[in-house]
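Objective 1b: paired records.
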Amino acid sequence: MPQSDPDSVAREALRLIGPDPENWVPDRDGIDHNVVVVGGAQSGSALAFALRRAGIGKVSVIDAATDSAEAGVWLTSARMNKLRTPKNLPGPELGLPGLSFQAWYEARYGVAAYVEIDRIPRLEWAAYLEWYRKLTGISVRYGTRLVRVEPAADHLRLHLEQGGTTRVETTRKLVLATGFSGNGGPSVPDVLVRHLPKSLYAHTSEAINFEALRGKSVAVLGSAASAFDAAAVALETGASEVHLFARRDGLASLPVIRIRGYPGAYDNYGSLPDAVRWHQAIRFRRAGSTPPPDAIARAVKFPNFHLHLASPWSSAKPLGSRLVAGTPLGEFAFDFVIAGTGYSVDLASQPELRDFAGEILLWRDRFTPPEHEHDETLVTYPYLGSGHEYLEKRRGSAPHLKDIHVFNPAAFVSFGLPVGDIPSFKRDIPAIAARISRDLFLADLASHEKRINGSIAEDFSTDLYASAVWRSPQNVAAE
């Protein structure tokens, strides 16, 4: 049974930390915002809350989605039954237990109910995030898409599309909390893009009409979690058969990232030498992304699910309303194919970055790995500063890059986690908020020096203690 009202628990937590600090950032003529956060889902909401608690005002959160249900992945492209991370990881509550998922869940369903779940149900997590935004008062401007970032003298001009029209707003800082879409977008194999009409395939990041696949033969490419999730939903919706094709000769089962999750490695990962961080990224790439056991079991329980190992597609071609794929084990015909093949990192393909993508420092510009650890995918990741900011490829060529902070998976090689997922919150959100605070403070140092050296009224006069001041008997007699 529920123990209490989650709203009252959260409000008490917020009451105990006191009111938000007043905005200490001086206004500047012609500047609309101190910070704009792009992305209004879990990351953007938590970042906005952290900035507000740091006393940074004029923070705006925008999202291209039409409303909160469309923002993020939890009610759109995510298809797992449960989150893939442990239920007790710190998340958007940022150290306030009353704002945590556990507090919310226990208040609704009881302590015993929380004990019983092994991982967080996806739909419950979506409901929790909606509640979190409401209780923390995070306002998101939905239907607002960032289409271009234009560098200016000491700020950024943001070209925003709203309702079919474009307007320009200015900001001093920009945070890209844009998920996988902020890196370069879905990675769809060339064998599909070049040889099949779009009507015959989709990526797992897209909205897929699984009802239309009822009674159909479906192929899924990829063997990580999203591929198994899509296969399971197709089967549960009534597909006649689902074949999942993996490039490897076995499913990835070594959770490489988990081994470095202890506080020493987690807290200090960004300070590791480049060679160590690169080796960890290579180790993860070669081990592969592990699907959760329950995601595998969800698909395997269907007798019409078939797993093809060591079976990359070498060809694909239309055949009437269907398609035929060539594999090492022969040709197979399907009605539709779903690509669960991950995401690319290609900053030059991001329209909003087109004015300066070539100036952003990448890992290939900073680090040359040994030959046996070369990887054409990882070299395209941005080499980020300690506050997750872009760095210049050539010193002095693009000073505005330091004002763009990356809180999306493009930060993986630099910080060792899928940044933007729950495991990154505890470490990286405070780090970004602290760097933004420092940069804004130092940029207005003259104003702050004047403020902190200004006159101040005394708390009390000498009358308060005059009667207690000790005087020697000789002085008293002389008086």
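Objective 1b, second protein:
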Amino acid sequence: MTKFNELNLNPKVLKAIEEAGYETPTPIQEGAIPPALEGKDVLGIAQTGTGKTASFTLPMITLLARGRARARMPRSLVLCPTRELAAQVAENFDTYTKHLKLTKALLIGGVSFKEQEALIDRGVDVLIATPGRLLDHFERGKLLLTGVQIMVVDEADRMLDMGFIPDIERIFSLTPFTRQTLFFSATMASEIERITDTFLSAPARIEVARQATASETIEQGVVMFKGGRRDREASNKRKVLRALIDAEGDKCTNAIIFCNRKTDVDICAKSLKKYGYNAAAIHGDLDQSQRMKTLDGFRDGSLRLLVASDVAARGLDIPSVSHVFNFDVPGHAEDYVHRIGRTGRAGREGKAITICSGRDEKALDAIEKLIQKEIPRIDNPIKDEPKSDEPKQEKKAKPSDEKKSDSKKSDRKREKEPKGRNRRDGGGATVVGMGDHMPSFIALSFDERRAG
């Protein structure tokens, strides 16, 4: 088995790797690092949680160890789809550059432009950014990309989902054609293939798993949920979620709960807290400092349940997440793979449970086709409630019930009488429009009805 010290990495990088507790590279790292160190373009296809970040950070640091950055002209560029993933990549660089004097800047939303501009002005070796914020700085005239030697696109399929492909193409056009490109994606949609064909030159292709497969270490299950009354469906669904969490007991040390909509993230988190669960929400509308505070709490174990939108589905490098709960079935099948990939990382065991209502069954079918297997059905921990509040029981007859019974008998007796009598005088005139099927109570005279 290959060791990191066999991959021709910088000795100071190897020292940092050793201090971080790693000895053996993952398959994507073993496949991507050698061609990256040779200066080749790399196309890496691997499911989430396989160590993709280190597969580009380690060779980049080695290649950048020599040289010096110039003001406003970063030597390398890493593009990430979300703030969380960009911040995670920045943490990786901090870990592996601790014995080297390399500078970095993180360009993400929710942070002051002035602070970011100050870093760029001093010159950075590594620029880590989301596409929108990078282009904002460029259009302000604060940034030049003509000095980029190495460009990384991370989570390219997520970029596609979020509509960033036009931005990515523009950024590619602003960098030198002589750059080295490292391109990583969990899946290879046709649009992604077009991008790689256009902007990568004879890349080394490393594919370590079947496209869009879930890790075999993740135990999966789905609860088929019948919501009942529409006005109670959401609260009943939250009740099922609480029961599922309780059923896992101590095995659920921490969990990420995914909702499709930001409003549901907030509602779900507030509901869990109301019932005494240690939970907090994270989604794109929260302030960046609040998001990072919540993530830090989840990482250090002070927060047990993280309720998230898909903005947090990727880029959360928390090795020991025991469970993932899909409160909603994701609309895109690929997102299911990325969501449940938050657990079972680095060879650990994990568990992912999805709640599927009737309207989500088509989306569930698409997921099962993508991962090429059926997700086991598990019992709903909340038993179906009876239609009425109390089960029906035989009651003892009351005097009033006896009167009703006599009334019914008289009604049946009247039904045998000739129909079509005039409502006023009981004569033979028919009631227009009723024909031979006129109910007996209409045929009765007003006097007879008053008497009854």
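The chain has 17 helices and 13 strands. The longest strand covers residues 218-225.
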